[in-house]
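Researcher: Please predict.
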Amino acid sequence: MGSFGSAEADRLERLDARAFEGGKLRRSGTWAVVFLAEWCPFCREFGPLFASLANEAKVAVGDLTDMESPLWEEFAVEVVPTVVVFRDGTAIFRRDGVLGEGLGARDLVAVRAALVPG
């Protein structure tokens, strides 16, 4: 298994297509899922930042390392990393990576805000 940028990021649960159905996460509660690919330099940079959320929320990685993963299409991911926050399975927030830039600390602030109920 490869790396998402840090030991902390690599320890996050990796979700594959079986964890989702029809654009929904098969989990209850509020989850932040970052769609990453091991070959993406922006993912390896953002992975450790995202992993810092593990102390305050349920987080996981939607692993898109395999270009044939059905998750690319199911979530219309065009740029990785991309973060989706789910509440009781339904997407309530999304932050797409920017081509050539990925995501950064400011994006993480927005994800944190989306994790707060209300």
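Model: The longest strand covers residues 30-36.
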